[in-house]
């Protein structure tokens, strides 16, 4: 088991399907099998599933919950609240459906600790969707036996899913942009903003493996916030460094304290 005690995995989740429940179980147990680390699961839903979520693993997790009525998943806000709770040098914005090879997590940790990288996308670029008939290879720690040809290429150069930050530098960059709601463009905006603000970004080697799942209204381009997200991304694209810093300084998230 590898020492990732200085890392907190932040997993926002809405248990919108049996697929999501299965994937969260696989992900939590995979992380706990390989690492001595910290995990926060922040559930956003109409009712709390704390007992069920805790039953998915025999290791401790920090559970958080918010009650919602409209079904909208505000991932960026959940991540910001978890960031404030996390008390480690490194935080990982981590998707409940993503799996990497162990060396990728370790490499991301080393890049931040030994090379002063501010943000690490812990894979080379391609994100591959694993079909359910190959999930057992993940659970049996046989990831290298997964046949990429049997997977769907979701994105040849993905920028989300497993993103590690130096927490202090992440705070300086404004955390997540909460104007992004539901799904769409938030991962691209994060990379663009941090680059414009002069932070050091890097990647590891390896694939981003994604456990396939069904999607609700939050999960694709037909969600009700997609145009708002697109417009916000365009705004960030058009700001120079000085104007971007000024804009980020206006972000005042009243629900969190950075004291």
Instruction: Quickly count the domains.
Output: 1
Count of beta strands: 11
What's the quaternary structure here?
single chain
Which strand order spans the largest sheet, edge to edge or round the barrel? 3-2-1-4-9-6-10
Classification by helices and strands: alpha/beta
Cα-atom Rg, whole angstroms? 17 Å
What is the mean predicted local confidence, pLDDT? 93
Would you state the CATH class?
Alpha Beta
Report on this model:
The chain has 259 residues and is α/β, with parallel strands linked by helices. The protein has a single domain (2-248), classed as Spore Coat Polysaccharide Biosynthesis Protein SpsA, Chain A (Alpha-Beta Complex). 35% of the residues lie in helices and 23% in strands. Strand 2, helix 2 (50-55) and strand 3 form a beta-alpha-beta unit. The longest helix is centred in the N-terminal third of the chain and has 17 residues, at 18-34. It is globular and about 50 Å long. The model has no long low-confidence stretch (mean pLDDT 93).
Tag the structure with descriptive keywords.
259 residues; Spore Coat Polysaccharide Biosynthesis Protein SpsA, Chain A; seven-stranded mixed sheet; four-stranded mixed sheet
What is this entry, summarized?
The chain is an alpha/beta fold and 259 residues long. The protein has helices spanning 18-34, 50-55, 75-85, 102-115, 135-139, 167-172, 186-196, 226-238, 241-248, and strands spanning 2-13, 35-45, 62-67, 90-94, 98-99, 119-121, 127-130, 152-155, 162-166, 201-203, 208-211.
């Amino acid at each position: 088991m590898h020492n990732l005690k200085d890392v907190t995995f932040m997993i926002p989740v809405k248990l919108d399907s049996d697929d999501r429940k299965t994937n969260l179980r696989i992900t939590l147990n995979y992380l706990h099998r390989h690492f001595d680390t910290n995990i926060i699961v922040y559930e956003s839903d109409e009712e709390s599933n704390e007992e069920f979520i805790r039953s998915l693993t025999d290791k401790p997790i920090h559970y958080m919950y918010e009650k919602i009525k409209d079904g909208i998943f505000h991932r960026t806000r959940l991540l910001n609240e978890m960031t404030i709770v996390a008390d480690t040098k490194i935080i990982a914005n981590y998707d409940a459906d993503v799996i990497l090879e162990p060396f990728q997590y370790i490499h991301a940790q080393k890049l931040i600790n030994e090379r002063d990288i501010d943000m690490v996308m812990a894979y080379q670029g391609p994100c591959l969707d694993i079909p359910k008939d190959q999930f057992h290879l993940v659970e049996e720690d046989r990831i290298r036996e997964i046949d990429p040809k049997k997977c769907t290429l979701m994105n040849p150069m993905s920028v989300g899913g497993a993103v590690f930050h130096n927490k202090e530098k992440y705070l300086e960059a404004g955390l997540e942009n909460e104007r992004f709601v539901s799904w769409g463009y938030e991962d691209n905006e994060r990379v663009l903003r941090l680059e414009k603000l002069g932070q050091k970004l890097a990647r590891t080697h390896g694939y981003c493996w994604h456990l396939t799942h069904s999607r609700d209204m939050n999960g694709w381009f037909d969600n009700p916030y997609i145009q708002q997200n697109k417009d916000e991304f365009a705004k960030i694209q058009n700001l120079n460094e000085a104007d971007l810093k000024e804009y980020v300084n206006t972000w005042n998230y009243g629900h969190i304290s950075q004291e």
